[in-house]
Every structure is written in C-alpha cells, then in structure tokens.
Amino acid sequence: MTTGEKIAALRRAQGLSQEALGEKLGLSRQAVSKWEADQAVPTMDNLVELSRLFGVPVDTILRPDEPLPGKTQQPPEGVNVVPDGFKITYAPVLTKKTKWFIIALAALVLVSVLGNLYAMARVQSLEAQLNTFKMQAQVQDAENVVQQGTTEEDSLSDYDIAYDLQYHPNKTVTTVLKLSLSARPKEVNLDVETPKFTIQSAGESWTCAAILEQDNSYVGSTEIPMRDAFTVYLTLTDRESGEVRNLLLETVSGVENEFEISCGYRWVTEDDEALQKGSAVQAENGSTSISGTVKAYFYGAFHSGETTMRCYPVSVRLVLRQGETELQSVAFATPEWDADLGRYNTQCTVDWTVDVQSEELQLVMEYTDNYGRVYQHVQNAVDGGRTEITFIF
After folding, report:
1. How far apart are CA 301 and CA 309, in angstroms?
2. Which residues contact 266 (CB under 8 A, 6 or more apart)?
3. Can you tell me the distance from the alpha carbon of 351 to that of 362, in angstroms, rounded to the nearest whole number?
C-alpha cells in the first residue's frame, strides 16, 4: 500500500471523514485529500501527529512494505493508550528504523545542498576565468593584427586623437585615459573591409569599434590605462582574404606630464618680504617653533589651444608630523588662477610651537588635484646641519 492508501485506511478505521481528520491536524480537507491521492506527502510534523492519532509507527505509514496492524493488534511497545471521550489518543512513536530513515534522509539533503553550493562556486570561477581569457585573447589579437598586417603611414586624409584623464577611485584601475578617435581614409572599402581602432603601448594593445560617418570618416571611443605614450591605428581587415592594413594615425607621447602638477614655495614675513634661510624655524630646549607665511604656486601643462591647466590643485594644506602622528595642520586658501604668470597661487600662515626636537619633525605639503589624487611631499626639519624645514617636489 502507498502512504496515501494507508492514511485513508487508518482514517476510515477511526471513523473519521477527511474534513474531521483535517480539523484534528489544523489542516484543510483538500490537504488530506491530496495525501490520500498520493499527490502530496505529509511533513515530518504531520507524520508524527498521524502516528499519534492512528497509534502506528511513522515508518508503517511511510514504507510500502510495512502492513497495517489488524483491528485486534495491540499498540506497539511504548505507545500509551488514553481514553478521551470517544477518542483514543496515542503518544508518537519513532522506531529505530524510522530514526535511521530520518537520519539518512537528512544526510541526503545536506549532500545535495553542499553539492549545489560547490557547483555554483565552480560555475562562477569558470566564468571569471573565461572573462580573463577573453580579455587576454583580445589583447593578443590586437597585437597579432599590428604585427602581421601591413602598416601604412600615408593613407589618411585627416585624423584626430583627443584624450582626457578619468579618475575612478572605486575601480581596480583608478586612473585611465578616455580616448576619442577619428580617421578619414583616402580610400573607403566598407563593402569588403571590417574597420576598428587599435591602440598600442609598450607591448600592450587595445581595440575599439570604428563607426563610419557620413563624411566617410571612422569614429570610435574607449578607455585605456594611463600611459605616457601610445600609438593609434585604424585597422582594416579584408573579409575574404583576411589581409590586414594598419593605417597609422599618430604616436602620442608625454601624456603624463599633461596631468601632473609641479609646485614651488617660499617663506615670507607679514610684509611679504622673503625670510632668510632657516629663520622660519627656531629650536630651543627641546621645543620647536615655526612661524611665518608660506606662499605656494603650482604649474602644469595646458589644454591645447586653451589658457587653463589640464591638472590643477583644488585644496592644499600644511601638516606638521612626528613620525605618523599629526601634531599641527592648517589649510591654505583656495588656489587662485594667475593668468599673467600662468599658474595657481595660494598661501597660509602658521605660528606653531611644539615640545619636540626639530630633527624628529616633518613638514608635509599635501594637496589634492582636480582628479581626486592626493600628493604628499615631505622633508625632515634638519637640512645640512641647520635647523630648517623645507620641501622637496
């Protein structure tokens, strides 16, 4: 007999309807009906409750080879029969066989769950490896294209390479160059050639799509890691023969200098007169005093055809440190652009005294540029045997 047939037989032996049995279990008649039709299996809690109601072991209900007890059969050992009006209630019984069955079932479920978790982790690992292989293949493909194809240096009637620095503090590669490319070949064979842009730098290569515009020029854009020099090609591949032509746009160099700041400074008095060397710092009896005004100025490369610097300071501060401990700090005024001198200027005034010997101190010029990068320049307080704090840039 199936589990459903046994539940039906035991219910009828008790003189209970499906609805009455459902009420005793806190379930609907439909739930009992599905059990008896073998459309659903009772939960372990319900099986224990059925065992208690019918006075039979759980495995008798579950196992098809276990016969139902006869009408005159005595309750199993350990079952307490208690009269309760017209009802007879039984304590639930879990035989040794049932316990081992439950343990085995739980072990199978655990193994299944662990297997699924391992499979999911393995799939994610394989996907990550596949993405890495794709990236490596893309780079290798671009390198092979440039190495195997022919290079033509006079096949463009016009081209343009524009780039700008992008800063992504939450990404693995925080500083990248955003490239905007365009190239107009002297001959356009769109029907037979597949176009793309190829960028090379120090053995590395990147590619991006090239889209044909109405004026017969190809345009594309991409991002590459920050590089001081790179070469750009318009790569055209013949669809039938596989022949590759690399139309050289240009080799760009000196990129890093365009996105760096050079800084200078000088100590002055309240009357804007230059302080003599070493006079800003006074050391006596284990104490160090620093007093004066620091004027700082920043230089950098300019945008092509413009009068503003590509990279410039947005905030500056002066910090006095002993080892890793910050003892004093002061913010400079907001840097202002000086069009006549082509630089940014700022200043701050300090009047500090600390109970620390000067040779243990460091004075730090810290500034942040418009790309969110923070620079720190440090110099010990003693320079050439004299008590003096200076900067190195």
Report:
1. 6
2. 274, 294, 295
3. 16
Beta-bridged to residue 158, according to DSSP, are 184
Domain 260-387, CATH 2.30.30 — does that match?
A: no
Burial label, 245 (beta-carbon count in 10 A; 0-12, 13-18, 19+): buried
Backbone torsion region of residue 77, taken as left when φ is above 0, otherwise alpha when ψ lies between -120 and 50, otherwise beta: beta
Q: What is the DSSP string of 10-46?
A: HHHHTT--HHHHHHHHT--HHHHHHHHTTSS---HHH
Q: What does DSSP say about strands 82-84 and 361-369: parallel, antiparallel, or unpaired? A: unpaired
**Tokens found for residue 19:** 């609805």
What is the SS3 assignment for 271? coil
287-300/313-322 β-pairing:
unpaired
Contact status, residue 359 vs residue 383, Cβ threshold 8 Å: no
Superfamily of domain 3-94: lambda repressor-like DNA-binding domains (1.10.260.40)
Indicate the domain borders of the chain: 3-94, 144-254, 260-387
3-94 matches 260-387 in fold: no
DSSP state of 309: B
Q: State how far the Cα of 341 lies from the Cα of 169, in Å rounded to an integer.
A: 32
pLDDT block averages, 10 residues each, the chain of length 393? 88 88 87 86 86 86 78 50 45 63 81 78 69 54 60 90 89 90 90 93 94 93 94 94 93 91 85 78 88 91 79 94 92 94 93 91 90 78 38 33
Using an 8 Å Cβ cutoff, are 343 and 297 in contact?
A: yes
Task: Take residue 209 and report the two structure tokens written for it.
Answer: 């799509």
CATH H superfamily, domain 144-254: Immunoglobulins (2.60.40.10)
